[in-house]
Amino acid sequence: MSSDASLLGLFLANYEDFRRRLRRRLRSDDLADDVMQETYLRVEKLAMPDGHATHPTSYLFRMALNMAADHHRAQGRLLTGEEVDELLHAVDDVIEPSAVLAAQQDIAALSLALDALTRRQRDILVAARVDELPQADIAARHGISVRMVGKELKKALETCATKTGRRSYQRFGPGARETS
Questions:
Q1: CA atoms within 13 A on the CB side of 3
Q2: What pTM did the predictor assign?
Q3: Where are the domains of the chain?
Q4: CA 19/CA 42 separation, integer angstroms
Q5: What digits encode the pLDDT tens for the residues 117-127?
């Protein structure tokens, strides 16, 4: 969906679904109706360049959620921290099949990458990145120096990056967090 007319058509085709989801999130029929009307007016005037939204349905629903937040601000009512968090970080009810497939492929690639590590590298990687243990604690656990922990962690990250086709971001050296 890249043309303005197709976005409007997509919005209209999903109108009742969006309205139902908004009613559930906002807990108000009137507010959901107001937000849907404002969103319709914005989509109708929208000039979106080609390729702007990868997932146009999610993009349109996110637009409606943003309109709900704008509506609350316009009414002079302050949202609670919980309401803001719900609106801004709400997980879309519909997960795109392509996103599910991509996530499954990422998990499979990561599993293969972890299998390519030595047992100590895997243990150090998990301790540092999942358990967020300080390198000194990891060194004591494995009976090695902190410097060796850093080297093993760096090797593990590089191996995982290579095997998954991702870029490795190093958190070592000046300004690095103490917990690695």
A1: 3
A2: 0.43
A3: 4-93, 98-164
A4: 16
A5: 999 999 999 99
Token look-up 């917990």 returns 179
The reply to whether CATH 1.10.10.10 applies to domain 98-164 is yes
H helical segments located in the chain: 4-13, 15-26, 29-45, 56-74, 81-88, 97-115, 119-125, 135-142, 146-164
Cα dist. 27→68, 125, 142, 144, 176 in Å?
12, 44, 53, 56, 44
pLDDT band at 175 (very low <50, low <70, confident <90, very high): very low
| Cα torsion 56, 57, 60, 65: sign | negative
Nearest CA among 101, 95, 90 for reference residue 63 = 90
Distance CA 172, CA 110 (A): 22
- Distance separating alpha carbons of residues 132 and 137, to the nearest angstrom: 10
Cα Dmax for the chain? 65
**pLDDT tens digits for range 76-105:** 655 566 777 777 776 656 677 887 888 888
